[in-house]
Amino acid sequence: MRERAIYASIAIVLTAIFVLGSMAGADGSSTSYGPVSVTGPSAVAINSTFNYTVNVQQIFSNYSVVMILSGYNLTGASPVSPVYKTGEQSGSNTFSLRAPSVATTLFILFQVIGNMTNHAKYYYNLTAKVLVKQFTILKATIKNPTEFSISAINVTFKVNGKYAGSELVNLSKNSTKNLTYKWVSGQLPAGVYTVSIYVNSSVVKLEGGNSYTFQIQSGNPYVIYIYIGILAFFTIIVVVLFIASYYARKRRPKWKK
Protein backbone atom coordinates (compact mmCIF):
# COMPACT_ATOMS: atom_id res chain seq x y z
CA MET A 1 0.00 0.00 0.00
CA ARG A 2 2.81 2.39 0.88
CA GLU A 3 4.52 1.68 -2.47
CA ARG A 4 1.33 2.38 -4.40
CA ALA A 5 0.83 5.63 -2.49
CA ILE A 6 4.37 6.67 -3.42
CA TYR A 7 3.68 5.97 -7.10
CA ALA A 8 0.41 7.91 -6.92
CA SER A 9 2.34 10.87 -5.54
CA ILE A 10 4.86 10.48 -8.36
CA ALA A 11 2.00 10.66 -10.87
CA ILE A 12 0.76 13.95 -9.39
CA VAL A 13 4.25 15.42 -9.42
CA LEU A 14 4.74 14.14 -12.99
CA THR A 15 1.62 15.98 -14.16
CA ALA A 16 2.76 19.21 -12.54
CA ILE A 17 6.20 18.92 -14.11
CA PHE A 18 4.68 18.34 -17.54
CA VAL A 19 2.55 21.45 -17.15
CA LEU A 20 5.72 23.42 -16.64
CA GLY A 21 7.06 21.82 -19.81
CA SER A 22 10.37 20.78 -18.34
CA MET A 23 10.17 17.04 -18.94
CA ALA A 24 12.39 15.43 -21.55
CA GLY A 25 10.89 13.46 -24.37
CA ALA A 26 7.51 15.23 -24.20
CA ASP A 27 6.72 14.39 -27.80
CA GLY A 28 5.69 10.93 -26.62
CA SER A 29 6.84 9.18 -29.81
CA SER A 30 10.14 7.74 -28.61
CA THR A 31 12.35 8.36 -25.57
CA SER A 32 15.46 6.59 -24.34
CA TYR A 33 17.58 6.56 -21.22
CA GLY A 34 20.66 4.39 -21.20
CA PRO A 35 19.68 0.81 -22.01
CA VAL A 36 15.93 1.58 -21.84
CA SER A 37 13.71 3.07 -24.55
CA VAL A 38 9.98 3.71 -24.76
CA THR A 39 8.00 3.92 -28.01
CA GLY A 40 4.37 4.76 -28.68
CA PRO A 41 2.05 7.28 -30.36
CA SER A 42 2.09 10.98 -29.51
CA ALA A 43 -1.56 11.50 -30.49
CA VAL A 44 -4.54 9.12 -30.32
CA ALA A 45 -8.30 9.27 -30.89
CA ILE A 46 -10.74 9.42 -27.99
CA ASN A 47 -11.93 5.99 -26.80
CA SER A 48 -9.21 4.27 -28.86
CA THR A 49 -6.89 1.48 -27.70
CA PHE A 50 -3.16 1.99 -28.18
CA ASN A 51 0.13 0.43 -27.07
CA TYR A 52 3.35 1.65 -25.51
CA THR A 53 6.41 -0.61 -25.57
CA VAL A 54 9.30 -0.57 -23.11
CA ASN A 55 12.49 -1.99 -24.63
CA VAL A 56 15.32 -3.03 -22.31
CA GLN A 57 18.74 -4.13 -23.53
CA GLN A 58 19.88 -7.60 -22.47
CA ILE A 59 22.35 -6.47 -19.83
CA PHE A 60 20.31 -7.38 -16.73
CA SER A 61 19.64 -10.78 -15.19
CA ASN A 62 16.03 -9.56 -14.92
CA TYR A 63 14.16 -6.32 -14.50
CA SER A 64 10.87 -4.89 -13.25
CA VAL A 65 8.81 -2.14 -14.82
CA VAL A 66 5.84 -0.09 -13.62
CA MET A 67 3.60 2.15 -15.73
CA ILE A 68 1.64 5.02 -14.17
CA LEU A 69 -1.01 6.94 -16.12
CA SER A 70 -2.06 10.46 -15.13
CA GLY A 71 -3.80 13.43 -16.72
CA TYR A 72 -6.27 16.27 -16.39
CA ASN A 73 -9.33 14.12 -17.17
CA LEU A 74 -9.15 10.31 -17.21
CA THR A 75 -12.87 9.66 -17.85
CA GLY A 76 -13.10 6.29 -19.58
CA ALA A 77 -9.33 5.74 -19.54
CA SER A 78 -7.61 2.56 -18.44
CA PRO A 79 -5.64 1.45 -16.59
CA VAL A 80 -6.00 4.16 -13.97
CA SER A 81 -3.98 2.18 -11.40
CA PRO A 82 -0.24 1.49 -11.70
CA VAL A 83 0.61 -1.62 -13.73
CA TYR A 84 3.51 -3.74 -12.45
CA LYS A 85 5.56 -6.32 -14.32
CA THR A 86 8.28 -8.05 -12.29
CA GLY A 87 10.98 -10.59 -12.99
CA GLU A 88 11.02 -9.84 -16.72
CA GLN A 89 13.88 -11.23 -18.81
CA SER A 90 12.82 -10.59 -22.40
CA GLY A 91 13.86 -7.45 -24.22
CA SER A 92 10.51 -5.68 -24.40
CA ASN A 93 7.18 -5.27 -22.67
CA THR A 94 4.03 -3.86 -24.25
CA PHE A 95 1.41 -2.02 -22.24
CA SER A 96 -2.11 -1.67 -23.65
CA LEU A 97 -3.99 1.50 -22.79
CA ARG A 98 -7.42 2.91 -23.53
CA ALA A 99 -7.74 6.62 -24.22
CA PRO A 100 -10.29 8.71 -22.29
CA SER A 101 -13.69 9.50 -23.78
CA VAL A 102 -12.87 13.22 -23.78
CA ALA A 103 -10.18 15.27 -25.48
CA THR A 104 -7.33 15.76 -23.01
CA THR A 105 -3.61 15.16 -22.45
CA LEU A 106 -2.19 11.99 -20.94
CA PHE A 107 1.11 11.74 -19.10
CA ILE A 108 2.74 8.34 -18.68
CA LEU A 109 5.61 7.45 -16.36
CA PHE A 110 7.62 4.26 -16.87
CA GLN A 111 10.05 3.20 -14.15
CA VAL A 112 12.41 0.35 -14.93
CA ILE A 113 14.46 -1.35 -12.21
CA GLY A 114 17.29 -3.42 -13.67
CA ASN A 115 18.79 -6.21 -11.56
CA MET A 116 22.39 -7.25 -12.11
CA THR A 117 23.84 -10.65 -11.27
CA ASN A 118 25.75 -9.05 -8.38
CA HIS A 119 22.37 -7.86 -6.96
CA ALA A 120 23.05 -4.23 -7.88
CA LYS A 121 19.97 -2.28 -8.98
CA TYR A 122 19.68 0.46 -11.60
CA TYR A 123 16.67 2.77 -11.85
CA TYR A 124 15.46 4.38 -15.08
CA ASN A 125 12.53 6.81 -15.32
CA LEU A 126 11.10 7.64 -18.74
CA THR A 127 8.09 9.75 -19.58
CA ALA A 128 5.66 10.17 -22.47
CA LYS A 129 3.02 12.73 -23.37
CA VAL A 130 0.00 11.70 -25.45
CA LEU A 131 -2.57 14.09 -26.90
CA VAL A 132 -6.09 12.64 -26.95
CA LYS A 133 -8.07 14.27 -29.76
CA GLN A 134 -11.39 14.03 -31.52
CA PHE A 135 -11.42 11.91 -34.65
CA THR A 136 -13.04 12.02 -38.08
CA ILE A 137 -14.16 8.85 -39.84
CA LEU A 138 -12.67 8.32 -43.30
CA LYS A 139 -14.20 5.60 -45.47
CA ALA A 140 -13.08 3.41 -48.34
CA THR A 141 -14.48 0.36 -50.10
CA ILE A 142 -11.89 -1.93 -51.68
CA LYS A 143 -12.40 -5.03 -53.80
CA ASN A 144 -10.25 -8.01 -54.68
CA PRO A 145 -11.55 -9.30 -58.04
CA THR A 146 -8.91 -12.06 -58.34
CA GLU A 147 -9.05 -15.77 -57.55
CA PHE A 148 -6.37 -15.55 -54.84
CA SER A 149 -6.10 -13.86 -51.46
CA ILE A 150 -4.08 -10.70 -51.02
CA SER A 151 -2.56 -9.68 -47.68
CA ALA A 152 -1.00 -6.50 -46.28
CA ILE A 153 -2.77 -4.10 -48.63
CA ASN A 154 -1.75 -0.59 -47.60
CA VAL A 155 -4.72 1.79 -47.85
CA THR A 156 -3.57 5.40 -47.49
CA PHE A 157 -5.77 8.42 -46.81
CA LYS A 158 -4.94 12.02 -47.60
CA VAL A 159 -7.11 15.00 -46.64
CA ASN A 160 -6.74 18.12 -48.78
CA GLY A 161 -3.51 16.66 -50.11
CA LYS A 162 -1.94 15.99 -46.68
CA TYR A 163 -1.24 12.54 -45.25
CA ALA A 164 -3.93 11.55 -42.71
CA GLY A 165 -3.09 7.90 -42.06
CA SER A 166 -3.01 4.38 -43.46
CA GLU A 167 -4.14 0.90 -42.59
CA LEU A 168 -3.14 -2.62 -43.61
CA VAL A 169 -5.96 -4.79 -44.91
CA ASN A 170 -6.22 -8.46 -45.92
CA LEU A 171 -8.68 -9.52 -48.64
CA SER A 172 -9.77 -13.01 -49.54
CA LYS A 173 -10.48 -13.93 -53.16
CA ASN A 174 -13.44 -12.25 -54.87
CA SER A 175 -14.24 -10.19 -51.79
CA THR A 176 -15.12 -6.60 -50.93
CA LYS A 177 -14.39 -4.82 -47.67
CA ASN A 178 -15.73 -1.56 -46.25
CA LEU A 179 -12.93 0.17 -44.39
CA THR A 180 -13.37 2.92 -41.80
CA TYR A 181 -10.33 4.77 -40.52
CA LYS A 182 -10.30 7.01 -37.44
CA TRP A 183 -8.29 10.06 -38.45
CA VAL A 184 -7.01 11.84 -35.34
CA SER A 185 -8.00 15.23 -36.70
CA GLY A 186 -8.87 17.18 -33.57
CA GLN A 187 -11.64 19.76 -33.81
CA LEU A 188 -11.86 20.63 -37.49
CA PRO A 189 -12.79 24.17 -38.54
CA ALA A 190 -15.79 24.63 -40.80
CA GLY A 191 -15.01 23.95 -44.44
CA VAL A 192 -14.99 21.44 -47.27
CA TYR A 193 -12.45 18.60 -47.13
CA THR A 194 -11.37 16.36 -49.99
CA VAL A 195 -10.28 12.82 -49.09
CA SER A 196 -7.98 10.98 -51.50
CA ILE A 197 -7.50 7.22 -51.18
CA TYR A 198 -4.56 5.17 -52.46
CA VAL A 199 -3.72 1.43 -52.43
CA ASN A 200 -0.34 -0.17 -53.01
CA SER A 201 -1.73 -2.89 -55.26
CA SER A 202 -2.41 -2.78 -58.99
CA VAL A 203 -5.10 -5.48 -58.82
CA VAL A 204 -7.12 -4.19 -55.86
CA LYS A 205 -9.95 -1.91 -56.95
CA LEU A 206 -11.39 1.11 -55.14
CA GLU A 207 -15.17 0.97 -55.31
CA GLY A 208 -16.81 4.37 -55.83
CA GLY A 209 -13.62 6.12 -56.94
CA ASN A 210 -10.44 7.15 -55.18
CA SER A 211 -11.74 10.37 -53.61
CA TYR A 212 -14.73 11.99 -51.97
CA THR A 213 -15.52 15.23 -50.17
CA PHE A 214 -17.22 16.05 -46.90
CA GLN A 215 -18.13 19.30 -45.20
CA ILE A 216 -17.72 20.28 -41.57
CA GLN A 217 -20.50 22.56 -40.35
CA SER A 218 -19.83 24.93 -37.47
CA GLY A 219 -22.97 26.23 -35.74
CA ASN A 220 -26.24 26.96 -37.58
CA PRO A 221 -25.53 28.10 -41.15
CA TYR A 222 -28.99 29.68 -41.35
CA VAL A 223 -28.54 32.04 -38.41
CA ILE A 224 -27.25 34.84 -40.64
CA TYR A 225 -30.35 34.55 -42.84
CA ILE A 226 -32.59 34.69 -39.78
CA TYR A 227 -30.92 37.91 -38.67
CA ILE A 228 -31.19 39.35 -42.19
CA GLY A 229 -34.91 38.48 -42.26
CA ILE A 230 -35.56 40.12 -38.90
CA LEU A 231 -33.63 43.22 -39.94
CA ALA A 232 -35.53 43.40 -43.25
CA PHE A 233 -38.87 43.03 -41.42
CA PHE A 234 -38.19 45.94 -39.07
CA THR A 235 -36.80 48.00 -41.95
CA ILE A 236 -40.03 47.51 -43.90
CA ILE A 237 -42.09 48.52 -40.83
CA VAL A 238 -40.05 51.69 -40.38
CA VAL A 239 -40.38 52.58 -44.07
CA VAL A 240 -44.17 51.97 -44.02
CA LEU A 241 -44.60 54.13 -40.90
CA PHE A 242 -42.50 56.88 -42.46
CA ILE A 243 -44.55 56.86 -45.67
CA ALA A 244 -47.83 56.79 -43.74
CA SER A 245 -46.70 59.72 -41.59
CA TYR A 246 -45.66 61.70 -44.68
CA TYR A 247 -49.00 61.32 -46.43
CA ALA A 248 -50.90 62.04 -43.24
CA ARG A 249 -49.13 65.38 -42.94
CA LYS A 250 -49.66 66.12 -46.65
CA ARG A 251 -53.44 65.61 -46.41
CA ARG A 252 -53.81 67.85 -43.34
CA PRO A 253 -55.81 71.03 -44.34
CA LYS A 254 -54.01 74.37 -44.30
CA TRP A 255 -55.99 77.08 -42.41
CA LYS A 256 -55.80 80.59 -43.66
CA LYS A 257 -56.17 83.69 -41.52
Count structural domains.
3
Tell how many strands the DSSP assignment holds.
Answer: 16
Radius of gyration: 31 Å
Please identify, by name, the CATH architecture of the largest domain: Sandwich
**SSE topology string:** HEEEEEEEEEEEEEEEEH
Helix content: 10-25%
Name the poorly predicted regions. 1-28
Q: State the secondary-structure class.
A: alpha+beta
- Largest beta-sheet details: 5 strands, mixed
| Number of helices, counting only DSSP H or I runs of 4 residues or more | 2
Percent strand equals over 45%
Give the CA-CA distance, first to last residue.
109 Å
In short:
The protein is an alpha+beta fold and 257 residues long.
Description:
The protein has 257 residues and is an alpha+beta fold. The chain folds into 3 domains: 2-133, Sandwich (Immunoglobulin-like); 136-216, Immunoglobulins (Immunoglobulin-like, Sandwich), CATH 2.60.40.10; 222-250. 19% of the residues lie in helices and 48% in strands. It is built from 2 helices and 16 strands. The chain has helices spanning 2-20, 223-251, and strands at 30-33, 36-39, 43-45, 49-56, 62-71, 83-88, 92-98, 104-115, 121-133, 136-144, 150-159, 162-171, 175-183, 191-199, 205-207, 211-216. Strands 3-9-8-5-6 form a 5-stranded mixed sheet, covered by helices on one side. The chain has a 4-stranded antiparallel sheet with strand order 1-2-4-7, with no helix packed on it. Residues 1-28 have low confidence and may be disordered.
